[in-house]
Design goal:
The structure holds 2 protein chains of 2 kinds. Chain A is built from no helices and 11 strands. By secondary structure, chain A is mainly beta. In chain A, the strands form 2 sheets. In chain A, strands 2, 4, 5, 6, 9, 10 and 11 form a 7-stranded mixed β-sheet that branches. Chain B is mostly beta strands. Chain B has one domain: Immunoglobulin-like (Sandwich). In chain B, 0% of the residues lie in helices and 61% in strands. The chains are: A mainly beta, B mainly beta.
Chain lengths: 114, 107
């Protein structure tokens, strides 16, 4: 597509539930990144994919967080047993290769855990 | 890991004024990017600037990689320039963000 698309734009869930956040990158972009942004902070790296494989998942906070990109295009960030501290805006970005030409971000998914 | 520090953290300007935002980073980087986050949360690319100077309308940016800093200049500011400006450096294939400068331009 023309830009990075993230769905849903907003998600409210109850503590303990499972959620999935979707990212559809720019067509042809091989690298895909997930970030998390809390209020008043800069985005924090979670994980990035080069093709289908996770090249770096060092930012995932714990084993409740998992992400996949099975066909090298769309990615899903999965959060199990959500906690109130997971509330944040989850941003996705994509780039050609490893960002040699810059990174383009989606509009984010605002997750609220109540 | 690499540290990215932005200054000032907050800035209030009168419409028409000029400003300079600074980004310091603690280690050599492959590349650097400036973003504007609008009030709706969208991160908008401003400059991809690993070194040198670039200009786009009222905005320009300079990166001096050997001295580990970058500057973003905003001239003749407008109310639509309000929002948070982030500097992000590329290390290990991923972007590392600073904490941002929150700019408010008053009419």
């Amino acid at each position: 597509g023309a830009g990075v698309s993230q769905t849903p734009s907003n998600k409210v869930t109850e503590k303990g539930k499972y959620v999935e956040l979707r990212c559809d990158p720019i067509s042809g972009h091989t690298a895909l990144y997930w970030y998390r942004q809390s209020l008043g902070q800069g985005p924090e790296f979670l994980i990035y994919f080069q093709g289908t494989g996770a090249a770096d998942d060092s930012g995932l906070p714990n084993d409740r967080f998992f992400a996949v990109r099975p066909e090298g295009s769309v990615s899903t960030l999965k959060i199990q047993r959500t906690e109130r501290g997971d509330s944040a805006v989850y941003l996705c970005a994509s780039s050609v290769g490893q960002g040699s030409y810059g990174y383009t971000f989606g509009s984010g998914t605002r997750l609220t855990v109540v | 890991g690499i540290q990215v520090e932005q200054s000032p953290p907050d800035l209030i300007l009168q419409e028409g004024a000029n400003s300079t935002l600074r980004c310091n980073f603690s280690d050599s980087v492959n590349n650097l990017q400036w973003f504007h986050q609008n009030p709706w949360g969208q991160l908008i690319n401003l400059f991809y600037i690993p070194s040198g100077t670039k200009q786009n309308g009222r905005l320009s940016a300079t990166t001096v990689a050997t001295e580990r800093y970058s500057l973003l200049y905003i001239s003749s500011s407008q109310t639509t320039d309000s929002g948070v400006y982030f500097c992000a450096v590329v290390q290990g294939g991923k972007l590392i963000f600073g904490q941002g400068t929150e700019l408010s331009v008053k009419p």
